[in-house]
Amino acid sequence: MVRVERVVSGLRFTEGPVWHKDGYLLFTDIPSARILKLAPGKPLETIREKSGGANGLALDEHGRLIVCEGEARQVTRTDAKGRVEVLASKFEGKALNAPNDVAVRKDGHIYFTDPAFGKSEDSKELPFYGVFHLTPKGELSVAARWGKRPNGVALSPTGKILYVAGSDERVIRAYDVDRQGNLSNERTLITGLEGPPDGIKTDEKGNIYAACNDVVVYGPDGKFLRKHELPEKPSNLAFGDGDMLGLWITAKTSVYHMRVEVKGWSIFEP
Question: Where are the beta strands (DSSP E) in 11-149?
Fold first, then answer.
């Protein structure tokens, strides 16, 4: 049996975990607008306050932190010196809804979802929920327009498939991704999820891990493989530890950790 360990507790709503190659976990506590750092053997550290309601996090190929700031309605990039640069805040003159989750390909292409949950729905300016694409040159385009709300987003290990979780429909959709980062061949890969899917990640075999009512795992063909139960409903997850065999899970007030048998995919792997 896999042992699930609660590592951090007492927070408000944790999200957006990402493992840094220097050996620590970054994640967000959305209501307190903080980005937190969890290093083994050290106290929990706040690395950024007033984060704009930071939600999903990712690292680019240079180790810079990409942040979906849902409340500020923008996507930012933070460098090693802590300087924050806005990458996207408007599309065709209208404010983004509430950037939620983000994935980065090894060549620098960025994908983020832009749903509108809660009060964001009342103030949204765009007539759709988007899956957006940012090129390495900073060009923003809509990769997919949804009538229902997208949530978690992840790339396959090859970078040739993009997966997007559909919270309203309880599905995971897949897209082919070409060398220029464009999407095509939209299809529904997984249906009937138990609970709205939130964050998703992939391992080196292309298996898909989704935070639903529990953590569920599907093969790249969409077939169910296994389920991991937690004391709290998970929101997102990230592979980590030095060998990428650790699975870190944000879940409401806590962060959990478990060891798995297949390495997670990492942007820093050769």
Answer: 14-20, 24-29, 34-38, 45-48, 54-59, 65-69, 74-78, 84-88, 90-91, 94-95, 102-104, 110-114, 129-134, 140-146
Give the Å distances, CA to CA, from 88 to 105, 156, 212.
Answer: 17, 24, 28
Tell me the per-residue pLDDT of 47-73, one tens digit each, with 9 for 90 and over. Answer: 999 999 999 999 999 999 999 999 999
Domain 5-259 is classified in which CATH homologous superfamily? TolB, C-terminal domain (2.120.10.30)
pTM above 0.85, yes or no: yes
Q: What pLDDT digit, counting tens, does each position of 8-59 carry?
A: 999 999 999 999 999 999 999 999 999 999 998 899 999 999 999 999 999 9
Q: Where are the domains of the chain?
A: 5-259
